[in-house]
Amino acid sequence: MLVGIGPGSVDHMTARARAAIAEADVVIGYVTYIKLVADLLDGKEIIRKSMTEELDRAVSALASARAGKKVALISSGDAGVYGMAGPTYEVLFQSGWTPDDPVQVEIVPGASALNSCAALVGAPLTHDFCAISLSDLLTPWPTIARRLDAVAMADFVVALYNPKSGRRTRQIVEAQRLFLRHRRADTPVAIVKSAYRRRENIVFTTLDRMADADIGMLSTVLIGNSNTFVRDGLMVTPRGYANKYDMEEGGATRAGEKAGRSLSTGLLGWLDQLQAEHAAGATIEALAARHRLPADYIAATLAEPWEDEAVPAGEGEA
Amino acid sequence: MLVGIGPGSVDHMTARARAAIAEADVVIGYVTYIKLVADLLDGKEIIRKSMTEELDRAVSALASARAGKKVALISSGDAGVYGMAGPTYEVLFQSGWTPDDPVQVEIVPGASALNSCAALVGAPLTHDFCAISLSDLLTPWPTIARRLDAVAMADFVVALYNPKSGRRTRQIVEAQRLFLRHRRADTPVAIVKSAYRRRENIVFTTLDRMADADIGMLSTVLIGNSNTFVRDGLMVTPRGYANKYDMEEGGATRAGEKAGRSLSTGLLGWLDQLQAEHAAGATIEALAARHRLPADYIAATLAEPWEDEAVPAGEGEA
User: Fold this and answer.
1) Radius of gyration of chain B (CA)
2) What are phi and psi of B211, to 5 degrees?
3) Does B89 contact A at CB distance below 8 Å?
4) Is A288 on the interface with B (CB under 8 A)?
5) pTM value surpassing 0.90
6) CATH 3.40.1010.10 region(s) of chain B?
7) Where is each Tetrapyrrole methylase domain found (chains A, B) (predicted)?
8) Domain A2-111's class?
């Protein structure tokens, strides 16, 4: 049982996470996570591992399970997000395991650091977001740099995991440099350490000062998108209601927009607009530049035979 | 209290989520989520809202709270991820609310759909990932398209929320088109409907057939990165151990690599390599093309005064 324990507070564990640990004969995990669930561990065999030994933790778990024991392999947050799920399946497959094996696997989902940290700072996620790890222990730097640049350009809210350590101090500087190619210097940034734990600490800063902030191994960095704002100590990314409703004037729908329907600049409206611009003489290249989309995508979209979609009656959607 | 109830199974709610609902006088939510927690609702005032009325839900919550009631506003998954947290803070601020107000706000984090769905299909996330909503009800299509293209190019694992509805049938087709510009046609895709609920359904397919699959409003689509594989009905994204360890030969560290340290192609090693290539005569433009990074970033990095970083003694890291 690969158990995501959430941020590390008993209140924020799921019923299944607690039950899985309670059912286990053996509990394996990085020492900090074992300590976080100490109250659940009486009478169990505890195997504490140190940080770099992810593969060892999975190998230990498999060995204990093959010996007929129930094993809880614990991760902070969610086991599937930079946690033990991937490494464990890699070790299982390497050993010749298949799902028909007597050893059965369950992954117990939990709230990841980005969810827990976000809950403490306001509503920074709200809309499209990414998680990127600045750890280059297993990933080449150019791969990480390309990802940072791509999501900064495409205006995602971004959560940086493993932002900095005693040895890795420059990656956060490079991340700031890449983000500043696309984002304003005053883009809100929140740095959350030890969410829902005793030494919880939250700092708000801006993109141009992110690399100078106090960031460590227990920190998650949240970088806002171009609409994110901080007000009264809360970081909020708008959902986009202002695109459809006049928020100042009692929430009336703007001209040309309709509740429960795509925006006038949603896919179908945009396709109409594109067709019209093209018919009016705009070249593929000009349209690509104007809409900041690849020329081959514009061309393929224009070439698509255009049929009115049958619209079923029924409720709108959020 | 903005409560994320997770995937919609009592087992997968946190203790705090259950406690918050139990403490509430009033419980507000979309009808489907209210039904998911029916067993907790005896004696409470229940306000059921339909799908497009997110702002109304927040306005109702504020009105009840101002009347002195404790209100639980529930979202599936995590309230901060395409949930009620953002809309609620927008409504609060619009009303003149500040954190000093008698009405206090708590966001209770939960596992989002991407975590729950991932737990059921294997370990698809593991590494850098993104969430993108295909709903264009509040977001212009070009914004969504740029995001899809950027993350496909930068090789993220991608979770598509709101992938398709009765009215929005073409967005998933466009998403597939954009992804195929960068990813192999056989990239693994998992479609999970109603995770941990009675009508749970999981389908594996590939990128080139994604748009033809049975996808609805209750589905989350997970698109693998270029290393994701499906084996024995499990979708797994490798963590990258093969970059450092010879997985075939008992896990020995590869030549030039070291456990607990950055890869030879991690930031510092890569910077050395870049300096050497430049000193050997490669132009900025050639380096930019070779490493697929912006030329101005390459130039700025080369211009940075290079000092050996003091490396503190101590443990490595994962």
Assistant:
1) 24
2) -70, -15
3) yes
4) no
5) yes
6) 2-111
7) 2-210
8) alpha beta
Q: Show residues of chain B in contact with A312, CB under 8 Å.
A: 166-167
Q: How far is CA B301 from CA A184, B148, B270, B291, in A?
A: 20, 28, 11, 13
| Beta carbons of A181 and B311 less than 8 Å apart | no
Block residue for tokens 């929005």: B168
Cα(B59)–Cα(B55) distance, rounded to whole angstroms?
6
Smallest CA-to-CA distance from B107 within B25, B45, B17, B29 is with B17
Q: pLDDT per position in chain A (318 positions), as tens? A: 999 999 988 899 999 999 999 999 999 988 888 887 888 899 999 998 876 677 888 998 999 999 999 999 999 999 999 989 999 999 999 899 999 999 999 999 999 999 999 999 999 999 999 999 999 888 999 999 999 999 999 999 999 999 999 889 999 999 999 999 999 999 999 999 999 999 999 999 999 999 999 999 899 999 999 999 999 999 999 987 777 777 666 677 888 888 778 888 889 899 999 999 999 999 999 999 999 999 999 999 998 865 554 444 444 454
CATH for the stretch B114-236: 3.30.950.10
Phi, psi of B280 (to 5 degrees): -80, 0
- The residue behind tokens 């967005």 is B171
How far is it, in rounded angstroms, from Cα A167 to Cα A216?
Answer: 11
Query: What is the residue-wise DSSP string for A14-42?
Result: BHHHHHHHHH-SEEEEEHHHHHHTGGG-T
B146 at A interface, C-beta within 8 A: yes
Alpha helices in chain A, H assignment, sequence order: 15-23, 31-36, 54-66, 85-94, 113-121, 141-153, 171-179, 241-244, 267-279, 284-291, 295-303
- Taking Cα atoms as reference points, which of A112, A100, A40, A44 lies closest to residue A75? A112
Q: CA-CA distance, A237 to A235, in Å (whole number)?
A: 7
- In three-state secondary structure terms, A241 is helix
Q: Quick check: A150 and B138 in contact, CB under 8 A?
A: no
Phi and psi based region of residue A217 (left: phi greater than 0; alpha: psi -120 to 50; beta: remaining) = alpha
Q: How far is CA A124 from CA A129, B57, B85, B92, in A?
A: 9, 20, 9, 15
Chain CA centroid to CA B246, Å: 30
Q: How many CA atoms lie within 13 A of B153 on its CB side?
A: 20
Q: How far is B43 from chain A (nearest CA, A)?
A: 23
Residues 253-272 of B with CB under 8 A from A: 259-263, 265-271
Delimit the CATH 3.30.950.10 region(s) of chain A: 114-236
Distances (CA, A) of A261 to A143, A237, B52, B57, B139: 38, 22, 9, 18, 11
Maximal C-alpha separation, chain B: 77
**Token duo for residue A16:** 């299944």
